[in-house]
């Protein structure tokens, strides 16, 4: 990374920002240090039960945060069976507890959220109808979204000097108009281009299943927060897997839609704008319930976002009736450069077997598609087109050092690779070839979806995730892709999938969930 | 242009190709040389009446080619009131006559067309239903589309060595499956990046209204052919105005849809593929009837082209009910660097006045949008990203010289400009700014469409068109845009719109049609 004279007080600046952000947690919601002193990145503790055992949440608050998805909560609030102020209070409290366990937050907006929740309740009482399709629902936002009056430092110390946002991100405006309430913003990695949500302002987000493991990134704050049930629905971005990696690490679900459906404007970019890369960043929801993702997508797209953001496709939401015929799945197994760890191999095998047993078709796609590894290197060349290295300049501006995981977040094959315009033409031709081949196999082949791993392993130890070759293909193709939880690692059951000749990181045995990435051509 | 040792026989090669192509006109359809010897690019003759006066067409053939649009012809053929073989014969004969007047064709496919027409007739007779929504309809294609078994030299002498196409362009396949019959391919400029449809194989296409004027380009063969009624519906491409410039020069209509709706795959590109330019080439129809454009768009999009071409948006065709409320138009007048010639100024004024009288709203957009001239220079930078100058290498391969109009087809401001990757980021930021401003004024401003000139003048003399600043903005924005005929130049009436201080090319007084470019955000 670039060398530059450090600014003497960057640590002070970061500390001051961090402390003022977290000072917004009410003192009543602070856990005893006897507990929090245990929650370090080396302990291997599972903290998922802390919200239930710490005694801070009432039975009703536990029920609100554990028993419903977002769709159900909106229904309950819209019909007056629950008050938004109670729902928002419950999630604020639980988010505060999550923060003290796994360090998943950046900006805390509890006061504004509770005020807005009261507005929602008053509106319902006065008007006899809900504010909108997200009436009173607390939603968490990755730090890169702008909320008027709140900072979006996205983990760069030099951005602390920037004033609070003067306007909302477009999608934030749409969600707010639909009745959503924003209670927290969540942590992410410095540069947003690594899978460890760690930066020099807010520190590192830990995996609530095992604090020694990564929560994933770049939307790792959401992954950890939702796993702790401090939020029921989060808003993330994704350019290489940023909304899917935290989901597969933390055992939640997420979807990366095709680009230009959810308005991207109005947020804070981690690098230079104007990239000629054909890979566009995408906004999508994360949570626990697939119908919640439909609620999110339908709400945003029904707001006609192309009127608000000139880069959104003016294409309405369309409902699709579930197929009554058996589905046709492609099954894409391991990439030889990143062989599957036993729990993932078992998850893939079990899922395929269950689907076949249920009458669905399963077509093996091994060796008929372009190499995932080569495709990922191609994608990363598109990510390296900025010769001015803007993220590094943002770091140099404060003197802060790069976070450790950045060292392993790129391909050794690309060390020293410098982009140039003429090669960019060739890269586009290569990408077109990859897309054409996938289209031939999947679309012309009549497949409804491809089932594949989201990663070769369950959540790895901090700073060891490496390059996301299983997720970035969805971005290179610009096809929708999602993560669905299908089970837990179990050493006994996984053993038969252990190819002894292969490397198997022991940390994985602590890991809890195996995930599959799900790709389908968009019909929405 | 690059210098290279000429290949001794490029002229022979071109002549041989040209003669073999035109030898496919049946001898019965050849005009006497007493006529054709007059049809030169310097005579100023109007040849629109030649098909009617030359005696080659029967009364029925004149009626078929003059009295109906494509929608009506399909209806008549689908119900057995006309035979496809008669319709196709009429258009083949008329296209042959047009060729001899204005040199608008490249590949002649009369035999194949008549055979296919008989198949259509037989199908209808046997099955009692039409083959598809374009049953039996003759359609003309720009030379850059591939038709199996036919060459697509696109005016490069070096491409004569290429074998005939082994497959159809995707859109050609779709149209064929819908029942269309292809009778001719049409002329275009060497490189496809100038407004004079002129190349060293097939020569120059002339404007049938006045042979001394350009037919426009790059789809000028279509413009001239359709003006001569040698085709009722043509298929064109457009990246800077290529489907609109011939329409405004020849007095027909056309539409450039948004990109990635009509499948672009399977054709012959005039330059390097893999461009990182955000301006994508677009396919659209040209003809005389707006409902024919709907027929074309609906037919292609209803064939679910995203299954056939991986770059097509998977968005179905949607019908829109005509608005019952007054429409809100923006009126964009002259760009100071290219002031309007009197007939265009009058056409714009008259149209705006008529629309206002009819109760529609008209908002003047002068000085609220980014400069068209500056925007066009930006667009042309995107067209200059290929430092390897592929079109020049295609020319060098045969030793053919560049056509004269290429000298005036670029901006003097860009002489010596060399693209580089880092500037490309800045260009994208500039484009984003232009799009944002247009979106703000037009979309957020609640306008339904913008009315503006398609060019500062009526069709100019050969090789003088220059840069297409009024059309390329539609490509830079990726908004749909079209050309609608609203009247003729009339010296007497135009005089009051003549600002004496401005340059007014006298050739224009011979010109016949003033066109308006029509932009509307796509809702299809």
UniProtKB/TrEMBL annotation, chains A, B:
Keywords: Hydrolase. Residues 86-493 form the Amidase domain. The keyword Hydrolase applies. The keyword Hydrolase applies. It holds the Pfam family Amidase. One of its GO terms (molecular function) is hydrolase activity. Substrate binds at residues 192, 218, 239-242. The active site is at residues 142, 218, 242. Belongs to the amidase family. PANTHER family: AMIDASE-RELATED-RELATED (PTHR46072), GENERAL AMIDASE-C (PTHR46072:SF5). This is Amidase signature domain-containing protein. It comes from Ampelomyces quisqualis (Powdery mildew agent).
